[in-house]
Write a structure and sequence with these properties.
This protein is α/β, with parallel strands linked by helices. Helix content is about 45%, strand content about 20%. The longest helix has 22 residues.
């Protein structure tokens, strides 16, 4: 077997696929806008279908559309011929990907899609194909070279389809005004989703579980409250419920190290005045960022100017937010 320069050949593949992407990008025009309008105005679901390698791309694109706010699913054309066409409704948009436009499985489901009344969008490289003729909106991709040595295996073409679909999904999300909170809502199990979903009031200790006591008590009483609640912090409030300061376990350790007579001190003498706080409606990740920056393990939680709880780093990390 002839030895080849593997890095050189790898770069050749990159160059060929980049060239295909650039050619497709430069050819974008009104058809892309028409397809985008169809996606945005769709009152049903955006259904992606494709056979073989384009089908694998279609699965990924359906997932991307869904995660960015466009309800979508992938329809396998072979399964579609055996009952799954029942998932297609009149209000749906079907995006069919076939570079030849003549994939047998795709061609066979086109009449039923038309009969149902769903809008059919064709993405193909063959303007004279069956798919092209059947499509309500058609995107003809430019000619480009496949990266494999035989020029046959879908390489550049699938990369182009992936990027084209990503462009549709991303631009559609921008038109919708899709926010990070929306992204988090659709990704509750992921680390990023948790950062964007969980609020401080979801994870804080509140009510009887919160450590809060009058600022006028002795330090001993404050220590008992701190110990009983086990939050690492006790909030000190005045008669109006306004936060005056906090005492943390770290504060106590420092006082004992300095040989302070803690049993003769008042809570007010030992407290840290004007402590860092966080509002209950803020993201828990924001609280975690403050704790890391200030090298502290907990924060008093405020709502309408009053202490309503304590948020602990341990609780945030325990929820999978890092």
């Amino acid at each position: 077997m002839e030895r080849i320069d593997v890095i050189k050949e790898a770069k050749r593949v990159f160059d060929i696929e980049i060239a295909a992407l650039e050619k497709t990008r430069d050819a974008l025009d009104g058809e892309f806008e028409e397809i985008l309008k169809a996606v945005i105005s769709c009152t049903g679901k955006v259904i992606i279908t494709g056979m073989g390698k384009p089908g694998h791309i279609g699965e990924k694109l359906a997932a991307t559309f869904s995660s960015l706010g466009t309800p979508s699913f992938f329809l396998h054309p072979a399964e579609a011929m055996h009952g799954d066409l029942g998932m297609v409704a009149k209000d749906d948009v079907v995006i069919a990907i076939s570079f030849s436009g003549e994939s047998d499985e795709i061609v066979k489901i086109l009449p039923t899609i038309k009969l149902i009344g769903a809008k059919l969008i064709g993405i193909t490289g063959n303007a004279n194909s069956t798919l092209a003729e059947a499509s309500d909106i058609l995107q003809i991709l430019p000619d480009f070279e496949e990266a494999c040595y035989l020029g046959l295996a879908p390489t550049s073409s699938t990369t182009v389809a992936l990027c084209y679909g990503d462009a549709l999904a991303v631009v559609a999300s921008g038109v919708y005004g899709f926010k990070d909170a929306d992204f988090g809502k659709f990704h509750p199990a992921g680390a990023l989703g948790k950062k964007l979903i969980y609020r401080v009031n979801d994870l804080m200790d509140s009510g009887d579980n919160n450590a809060v006591i009058s600022v006028d008590v002795s330090l001993k009483e404050a220590i008992i409250e701190l110990s009983d609640k086990g939050l690492g912090l006790v909030s000190l409030v005045d008669n109006n419920g306004d936060l005056k300061g906090v005492i943390t376990e770290g504060d106590l350790r420092r006082m004992l190290k300095n040989e302070a007579n803690v049993y003769e001190m008042s809570a007010k003498e030992a407290m840290t005045a004007n402590p860092k706080t966080i509002e209950s409606g803020k993201l828990a990740y924001e609280a975690l960022s403050i704790m890391k920056e200030k090298n502290i393990a907990c924060l008093p939680v405020m709502e309408d100017g009053k202490v309503v709880g304590t948020i602990r780093m341990q609780a945030i990390l325990g929820a999978g937010i890092v």
